[in-house]
Amino acid sequence: MSDLAIGVIGYGLRGSLAKHAHHPGEGSRVVALYDPDPAAHERFRADFGADVHVGDDLEAFLRLGLDAVFVLSPDHMHEEHAVTLLEAGIAVYLEKPMAITTEGCDRVLRVAQKTGGRLYLGHNMRHMPFVREMKRLIDSGAIGEPKVAWCRHFVGHGGDFYFADWHAERRYATSLLLQKGAHDIDVLHWLCGSYSRDVTGMGDRLVYDVDQAGEEAPWWQRRSLDRWPPKSLTGLNPRMDVEDVSMILMRLENGILASYQQCHFTPDYWRNYTIIGTEGRIENFGNGEPGTVIRIWNRRHNYDAEGDVVVPIEPETGGHGGADPRIVAEFLRYVRSGGATETSPIAARYAVATGCAGAESLRAGGTPVRVPEADPAVVAYFEG
């Protein structure tokens, strides 16, 4: 079996994902990078060898005869990069969010349908062991029929990662309901077996402010847990105009009521999902770190912190609790032979559409917003 020739667009924070695709002589080899940053070229050569192609000429990159490309560029570039690759006949791994507008997502889907191209979405949380186990338990009837769902997202590194660069600007991100929330909205949709139909939201920037702008701290300092409290941080983006707290309520197409709360100045960094059904409640504690468990309450109680069933989740190696190597392996299999995948272009579109509706609602004082439906012909193409 000859190696798939793999390219990468954008070698920033998610660049490590491509390392899971580099198996020379075993089926896939990372051979090229398109990125305008010379520093990224040096990092790429250090990781994949001096003989790789690196450059800032997209047309030259497209002429290399690549089999597949990881699109890991900033969010506002996803749409154009995906469309360009699909029109060139190259399989695409598109990092979430799919685009920063619902219209952008629909454009990508139409191009993939028209060209027959292979489009794969990087919603790696569907490959996280604790999420997969929650999905299995819910689908097996462990809590009866799901009726209520919510996610609390504690983004302890908000000032380090999301208010120090382009993520803090609407023109590049629309809202952090996309960059961060697209993961959680997709997981809520997946666990509940339905997409959002109506959304209402509230949000604000309550802590981070332009008066915290200034010289940006080096990345290794920005990862330090000693950077506390949030109001003491410096080096933030002076053009910030996204919210550091966002809360949305969703009515799903199947009638389930769901909520998502995101805070960027909490001291801890993890996600907590709770699903309540007609016969119980399920909840995760931890996101794959040592000690992560899923708890189920399926008998009546007063206060009970332990639950009736405790399911331990064993830690796995690899980024995001083992999800990164799993999702890359599935993508490479999909490039070679097609077939069903755990991630879904339609689901990715609805995650963005829900986040966009939530941002529209919260900026309009909580006015309810209907999530636009996807084109039925496009849905049939991807889900048929």
From TrEMBL:
Domain Gfo/Idh/MocA-like oxidoreductase N-terminal: 5-123
InterPro entries membership: Gfo/Idh/MocA-like_OxRdtase_N (IPR000683), Gfo/Idh/MocA_oxidoreduct (IPR051317), GFO_IDH_MocA-like_dom (IPR055170), NAD(P)-bd_dom_sf (IPR036291)
Pfam families registered for this protein in UniProt: GFO_IDH_MocA, GFO_IDH_MocA_C3
Domain GFO/IDH/MocA-like oxidoreductase: 131-283
GO molecular function: nucleotide binding
Name by which UniProt lists this protein: Putative dehydrogenase
The organism of origin for this protein: Thermasporomyces composti
